[in-house]
Specification:
Elements: E1 5-6, H1 10-17, E2 20-21, E3 31-32, E4 37-44, E5 47-55, E6 57-59, E7 72-74, E8 76-78, E9 95-100, E10 102-107, E11 114-120, E12 126-133, E13 143-150, E14 161-163, E15 165-166, H2 171-176, E16 194-202
Parallel strand pairs: 2-5, 5-13, 8-13
Antiparallel strand pairs: 1-3, 1-10, 4-5, 6-7, 9-12, 10-11, 11-16, 12-13, 12-15, 13-14
Length: 205
């Protein structure tokens, strides 16, 4: 599953997605990890806007004595679970696009895993299909999760799952169409169009 990605700058994402900032905020930058603040694109009141939310839906677990533990960010949603656990958040009002310039996977033997970065070869940015929800918790705030599908067979040795990447012509469908119309996106981006950058940088820093 994707646990690390880069989104590029707010200005670049706003231009690429033809979206206006929903409010004033510090766009941050650099590498995004679960529970970091990241950019999302969504339709709001008939306009396409770009906002900032927490990456990962908060999952509250309980300790051995039944006490609530610190929430854990659920930052990926399996496509084949959209009609189950995730269904309450699959309405058009809860869908978004996640701006991504590239995402990383851990590759190699346990204890020696390194960063491998993947991106769409002919584009400066990709649209990762996502879901978002409101959240009243002041620390967590509104949050989003990225939808995953099976990886292309040629890339499965890196990881067997991959983000659902949407072509520009499909953005409107993802944001507005009924859930039954979205299953055609449950497929990987073609491996021939994916750039792979295997590095020697340690996954754990």
């Amino acid at each position: 599953m994707c646990n690390r990605y880069e989104s590029g700058s707010l200005d670049d994402a706003a231009r690429y997605f033809r979206a206006s900032p929903a409010r004033r905020f510090n766009s941050g930058g650099g590498t995004i990890h679960p529970k970091d603040r990241g950019l999302v694109v969504l339709d709001r009141d008939g306009e396409r806007v770009i906002d900032q939310m927490t990456w990962g839906f908060p999952l509250v677990l309980k300790g051995k004595k039944g006490q609530p533990l610190k929430p854990k960010p659920v930052n990926n949603a399996r496509f084949d679970k959209l009609d189950g656990f995730w269904k309450r958040w699959t309405a058009p009002a809860n869908r978004c696009l996640i701006p991504v310039t590239r995402y990383a996977e851990a590759e190699g033997p346990k204890g020696k895993k390194t960063e491998t970065w993947l991106s769409v070869a002919d584009r400066p940015m990709m649209a990762w299909a996502g879901l978002w929800r409101t959240n009243d918790d002041e620390e967590w705030g509104d949050c989003y999760t990225g939808v995953m599908t099976d990886a292309a067979p040629e890339l499965a040795k890196i990881h067997d799952r991959a983000p659902v990447i949407l072509a520009a012509d499909d953005w409107e469908t993802w944001l507005t169409a009924p859930l039954d119309d979205l299953y055609k996106f449950d497929r990987p981006w073609p491996a021939a169009a994916v750039k792979v950058d295997a590095t020697d940088r340690s996954w754990v820093r």
